[in-house]
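ok, trying the design again with the full structure, not the truncated one.
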C-alpha cells in the first residue's frame, strides 16, 4: 500500500480517519463536497480556483480573499467541528506546510485538497497517477549535473555577496575547504536560495523588498533516519505511515519504492517531525539541544506502534532543519508583499518555492523556469517558453 494510518490501536489502509466508522462521517461528506466544488470551480477569467503552479489560479477576489483567513477559521465558518475531520485538516497542513490549521492560510489549506483531481468521483473524467522514483531530488540533481563539465560545477563553494556592477552582477564566493575567496562576474544571476537569506547576501536590495523577504516565517523540522538490521515483521509496510496520535507527520519506508531487485538486508525508516509552535523559539532550542533527547522521542513514538523496534535499531541519524520550509500564513500568498518576493532586482532573479509562498516541489520548479526565462530575456537570447498560458 502507498499509505496507511495508525488509529485506535490498529493500521487502516489509506489516510482516512473515518475508515473505522464514526457518527460524524456526515461532516466528512460535507467537507469532500466542498473540496470537490473548489476543485472544479473556475473564476470569471476562466482559470481554476486552485491551480498548481499557483500562478495559474484565478484572480477572482472572492477566491483570493480566502488567503486572509486561517484554515481553522474557514472550517468554523463551514460548521466543521468533528475531531476526525479537524485532525485530517491539521495533518494536511502539517505535512505540506509545517503548521496547524490555525496557522495556515485558508487559500493554502484548500489548495492542498483542491489543486489535484484526486476526488474518487472524478476518476473517470480526470484519471491521475503519481510519478515517483528512488533517490528523491538527488535523482534530478544527478541528471542536471550530467549536462555540465567539471569546470562548470563549483562544488563546496558558497556565494556570500552579490552586488550590481553596471549591467552585470559580481558574486563574492568562498571555497569552503580552503577558505579561498574569488569574485565572479555574470550577466545575469538566478538566486535559488531561501529568500530570508537574500537581504544578507544581495547588496542594495530595496527596503520594501527586504522587508517582504524578511517577514516570511520558516518552520523548523527534525528528520530522523532510523537504520534497522532487518525488515520489520509488519505486513503491509507502506511508503507513507501516519500515526494519528503523534506530533509527527509519520514516517516513510526508505526502500518501499525501490525496485524489488535492490531490496535486501535491512530497512531505513525516515521520520518527520515539524516543530509547529513558535518557529523562532524552536530554532533556538534546536541549536542548544543534544541529539540524544530527540532520538529518544523518535523511538518512544515509533515503539508504541512497533514494540520490536529497539531490538532492530542499528543507529539513528538526526537532522535539524532550522528553516525547513516557508509557512503560508494568512496574507503570504496573495497579500501586498507577495509580488515583491517575485520581483527581480536588476539582473538578479529570485527562484525558490518561497517566491510563491507554497513549499512545494512544483512551485520551486515553476519559479526556477520563470527565473531562467527572465534571464534569457534580459540577455537578449532566443528561447521558447515552457510556461504556456501565463496570465
Amino acid at each position: 500500500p502507498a499509505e496507511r494510518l495508525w488509529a485506535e490501536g490498529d493500521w487502516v489502509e489509506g489516510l482516512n480517519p473515518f475508515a473505522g466508522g464514526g457518527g460524524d462521517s456526515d461532516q466528512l461528506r460535507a467537507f469532500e463536497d466542498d473540496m470537490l466544488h473548489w476543485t472544479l470551480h473556475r473564476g470569471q477569467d476562466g482559470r481554476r480556483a486552485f491551480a498548481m503552479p499557483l500562478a495559474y489560479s484565478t484572480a477572482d477576489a472572492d477566491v483570493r480573499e480566502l488567503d486572509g483567513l486561517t484554515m481553522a477559521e474557514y472550517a468554523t465558518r463551514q460548521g466543521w467541528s468533528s475531531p476526525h475531520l479537524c485532525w485530517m485538516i491539521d495533518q494536511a497542513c502539517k505535512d505540506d506546510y509545517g503548521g496547524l490549521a490555525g496557522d495556515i492560510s485558508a487559500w493554502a489549506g484548500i489548495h492542498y485538497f483542491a489543486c489535484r483531481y484526486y476526488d474518487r468521483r472524478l476518476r473517470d473524467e480526470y484519471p491521475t497517477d503519481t510519478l515517483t522514483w528512488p533517490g528523491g531530488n538527488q535523482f534530478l540533481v544527478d541528471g542536471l549535473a550530467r549536462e555540465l563539465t567539471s569546470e562548470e560545477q563549483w562544488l563546496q563553494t558558497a556565494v556570500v555577496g552579490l552586488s550590481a556592477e553596471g549591467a552585470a552582477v559580481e558574486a563574492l564566493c568562498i571555497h569552503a575547504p580552503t577558505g579561498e575567496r574569488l569574485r565572479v562576474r555574470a550577466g545575469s544571476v538566478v538566486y535559488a536560495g531561501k529568500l530570508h537569506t537574500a537581504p544578507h547576501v544581495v547588496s542594495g536590495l530595496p527596503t520594501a523588498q527586504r522587508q517582504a523577504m524578511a517577514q516570511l516565517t520558516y518552520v523548523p523540522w527534525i528528520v530522523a533516519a532510523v537504520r534497522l538490521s532487518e525488515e520489520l515483521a509488519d505486513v503491509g509496510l507502506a511508503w507513507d505511515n501516519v500515526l494519528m496520535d503523534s506530533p509527527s507527520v509519520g514516517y516513510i519506508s526508505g526502500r518501499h519504492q525501490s525496485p524489488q531487485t535492490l531490496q535486501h538486508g535491512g530497512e531505513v525508516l525516515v521520520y518527520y517531525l515539524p516543530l509547529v509552535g513558535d518557529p523562532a523559539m524552536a530554532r533556538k532550542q534546536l541549536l542548544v539541544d543534544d541529539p540524544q533527547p530527540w532520538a529518544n522521542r523518535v523511538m518512544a513514538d515509533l515503539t508504541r506502534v512497533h514494540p520490536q523496534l529497539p531490538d532492530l535499531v542499528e543507529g539513528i541519524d538526526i537532522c535539524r532543519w532550522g528553516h525547513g520550509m516557508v509557512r503560508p500564513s494568512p496574507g503570504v500568498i496573495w497579500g501586498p508583499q507577495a509580488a515583491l518576493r517575485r520581483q527581480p532586482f536588476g539582473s538578479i532573479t529570485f527562484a525558490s518555492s518561497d517566491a510563491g509562498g507554497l513549499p512545494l516541489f512544483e512551485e520551486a520548479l515553476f519559479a526556477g523556469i520563470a527565473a531562467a526565462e527572465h534571464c534569457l530575456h534580459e540577455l537578449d537570447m532566443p528561447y521558447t517558453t515552457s510556461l504556456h498560458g501565463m496570465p
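Keeping the full-length input from now on. Residues 218-326 form a domain with the Polyamine Oxidase; Chain A, domain 2 fold (CATH 3.90.660.20).
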